[in-house]
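FIELD: query
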Amino acid sequence: MKRWLVVLPLLAVAPGEVRAWEPETTQTGLAEQAALSSTLHKRLVTLGFGGGLFEPLTIPPADARALIDALKLLSPSHGSVPDARGRQAALAWLAAGAALADLPASHGANHFYDPLSHQGWQRPDRSFTAGIADRVRDAMGRADIPAHGVPAPDWVTSKANPFNLDAFLLQYGKAVSAATPGERSRYMAAALVAAGAMMHVLGDLGAPSRVRGDEAAHFEPLGGGPDDLGSRFERIAALAFGRLGVPPPARTITRTHLRDFFTAADHTGLADVISRSYFSANTLPGSVRVGGTHDDQPHLVRALPALPARLNLMAATHQDGTTVRDAADTCLVRYHVEHDVLSFSLDDDCMLEQVTAILPEVAAYEAGLLDFLLRGELVVAVADHISVGGKGLGTGELVILGEDDRGVRTQLSTVHVAAGKASDQAVEVANAPIPASWSRVVAVFRGTDAGGEPLVAVGSALPGR
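FIELD: result
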């Protein structure tokens, strides 16, 4: 575990830090809601963690001091701080990963992706800093803001990311194959931390500014202190919903490739959907003079979202202006005419409507990502011998283990699985003799799926079942 649990800095907010959905509230709430709608509980029970999402898992502090110390800086009231033994429920370890994914602070710059430019974070240029308040500029000057970030779809598989896909697969496989219950508990907790962190990266793409090249929206003054900078949109989500109020997903998004949850060729990734559906603070339509002889059509920074062919300019002359709404009746943008100038804006109430519509969608994508990570399933049967079947497997290695009444697992057989050996049906790919005494048989496949995506597939059987 120490190979990938890097030393994490304090969880203090640095001046100009590129923050995401608030980690201890929105992000942990999204992770919890996604987990409750996923197959995680069932998978944990199948693998011997009888309490499922609420099974206590322990990472001894001596094994991962940096991780435990970082988690203790979180508020215990937010449900992701282990006790003195390093023990908390499986669901809490997932939430812990969601809370830690921004650390160190520079990693927050890797949670952006613009599907039009295919770029991640780009530091705002001088034209932006010249137009902001002195206190904001001073705060930015004290911060080490990276010039560029790794695009979010690439970050979840990047070797520079301590909570990447490889880290999850490594720990998840060991959570099945390790010899003792204590070892398996540590590895499963670590796997859930990595899964929660990847869900955080995906979830950040639900904020419009992160998928519309609007980095400047993350330097808005939010509070009384000069260093309290960030996204007003994301702060509204934290204030309105906290952690426990985050809405559940109405459905679970399914994809066959990891990257497709983020962005896809058919434009159904989370970044694709949010980018074309909402404006952000600095990608609003441009102001325009109306009633003149020249072109009075507002200039759109991007083709989508589109404005109605005809705006109600009469209503826009009222003191509070009027609103463009989308097909679901969510506020898209406010517009107002004053002194013959048509201008557009996003107020707090409009952004709150958008947050209310977006969060269940984000949770749906996160639930789908979690199910994707857990998608590998083996069928284990015990008759006159142990038989293991699987479908959709590519090339890899399959290990069969027997567990005795002490909970200790011993390897019974190892088989190399060649690509094409397993079909879409769960055909037998390995077998082993039955041990003299056993309380559970488990199997774990490490390799790729039929589509070439990295995969850990697992399965188990109990006596008489």
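FIELD: remark
The chain has a mean pLDDT of 89.
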